[in-house]
Amino acid sequence: QDRTRTVKCDVCAGTPCMARGMAPSAPSLSDMKVSAVLPFVVMMISRGMDLEGLLGARVIRCIFAATLLATLSVHVCILMRVRALSEEGRVKVPAKRQLGQLIEEAKEVSCRQYDLSMLKEKCTQIIMSALVCWGVTLYWGGCTLLILHTTMLPCGLLDLELFKIHILGRVAQGKLRRPFPSTDPLGKLFSGKPEGREPREKKKDKKHR
């Protein structure tokens, strides 16, 4: 009888797949993030109900500011819990490359130091994106971008690994294992190689050895 053998492969991130070269199965609905679906739903509702005309620009700006403050407050709570961690546990942070150039060398830090650096990076992204969104709205007018960003803030918080670990109390294993995958689209686009994978040449050399 023709039997197929399941193996652990790098493409499927450790999940069993068919060993005969078959393509991995498509992600299920449970694996999809809320942040990937909710913006389209909000845009359809905004266009259908005319939220800008219904609520007014001032109310939408106040809701945006309140959502931003609430999101940053949750990050402050995460910061307090991260600072309470001990220096035990080590994380091997891979090197960061952009446009083929080395930006930051690979290093090994404690879990506490790694979480602090990731939290600082995330807060910087939130503040910078909020300032850009606010500036664009003031210059060109309209509140569609504010409505979209208001929904993206809590979605990004729910998808944050640090929120799941320190607030929801989940164990840092599997998809929550440190180091976390990069969330910067520009970093993924201009990086020299995909994160967490070795070049094919190195893998071939290891096989010959």
Helix content: 40-55%
- Please tell me the total number of domains: 1
Distance between the termini: 35 Å
Low-confidence residue ranges:
1-30, 190-204
Shape: elongated
Instruction: Give the strand line-up of the largest sheet.
Output: 1-2
Identify the quaternary structure here: single chain
Along the chain, the helix and strand elements come as: EEHHHEEEEHHHHH
Count up the helices. 8
Mean pLDDT: 75
- Structural class by secondary-structure content: mainly alpha
Number of strands: 6
State the major sheet: 2 strands, antiparallel
Task: Supply Rg.
Answer: 21 Å
Query: Into which percentage range does the β-strand content fall?
Result: 5-15%
Can you describe this structure?
The structure is a single chain. The chain is mainly alpha-helical and 209 residues long. It has one domain. 53% of the residues lie in helices and 10% in strands. The chain has eight helices and six strands, in the order E-E-H-H-H-E-E-E-E-H-H-H-H-H. It has a two-stranded antiparallel ribbon with strand order 1-2. Strand 4 and strand 5 (101-104) form a beta hairpin. The radius of gyration is 21 Å and the shape is elongated. The chain starts with 5 loop residues before the first strand and ends with a helix. 10% of the residues are buried.
Task: Write a short abstract of this structure.
This protein has 209 residues and is mainly α.
What secondary-structure arrangement, pairings included, does this model have?
Blueprint: E1 6-8, E2 16-18, H1 38-49, H2 51-55, H3 57-83, E3 90-93, E4 96-98, E5 101-104, E6 107-110, H4 111-140, H5 144-159, H6 161-166, H7 185-190, H8 200-208
Antiparallel strand pairs: 1-2, 3-6, 4-5
